[in-house]
Amino acid sequence: MAFHKLAIQDINKETAAAVTISFDVPSSLKEKFSFKAGQYITLKTEIDGKDIRRDYSICTSPKSGTLTVAVKAIENGLFSKYANTTLKVGDVLEVAEPNGRFVFEADASKTRTVAAFAAGSGITPIMSIAKTILEDEPNSHFILIYGNKTPKDTIFFNALLALHSKYTERFSIQMIFSQSQEENAMFGRIERSTVNFLLKNTYKNNKIDTFYLCGPEGMITTTKDVLKDFGVAESDIHFELFTAPVTSENTANTTVVNDGSTIIKIIVDDEETEFVMSQKQSILEAAIAKQIDAPYSCQGGICSSCIARVTEGAATMTQNNILTDSELAEGLVLTCQAHPTTPSIVVDYDDV
Fold first, then answer.
1. Of 34, 62, 96, which one is at a domain's C-terminal end?
2. CA 270, 272, 275: angle at the middle one, nearest 5?
């Protein structure tokens, strides 16, 4: 994973607990930092002597010429609190080139309707997707269902209203607040009854071609289930988790992690490293312990930074919320979740 030092060009307070951070990308790096709507960047810095990496979705459109992310402070969030209270214009962070598979690519010749369900900071990649559709597909429409506690807690509240005012005929917004009764907004959360009501009533006459979901796992799972009940094909539902998945006691992971050892060969940037690792370790943990510069960020199985291909041997993942069945069949794994199950294994980070 290649990192580049970028200076902070601008910081804006979006809510009491969220800021947007814009980076000054020099002309020599413009091509490397070109991105697709919905992608993220990994930020790296040192806080209290610890090397910290965090992924944040880009909230601007590709044609805007700006690289901006939103960071919401969360409880026990080391970097998110640092970003909201300490970072300032001129500070330099290490930034990885854009990555991610939760993407939208515009086609000016198309006429379609895209809908998105977002909750909290899940709006950040959706904002990029919304702007891209409205700017680059003049005949397409965008529907946004966006859940928050109150208007003052809503990231991009005023920006979304301005976008709606500019594209009134093509941009529909349904705000949902769980702690505030507001005009033209629903009260509650994005849950089964809410999604059912919107599809059966508000948007019953809209032929929606594609859905994008971003936010907590519970919201995404519920919305996906309702959409599938309405006959929406799985291939037309794209999602990205914004919190680590929760494993309930009733759905305990049945993956068995072996107690043996494996001879592993890891390929990164055309360099091969071979050593013996415990099968109790994840492949990524073993790589980091050997100081191999393997790409990673969240280490929780919710980003795609650590994807690699198993070209020899086999591994099992403790959880997977990203890779499709066909990608698994091709040998792709999330190395932060993958444990070897064979005496030897070859893992190629370059072949993805």
1. 96
2. 160
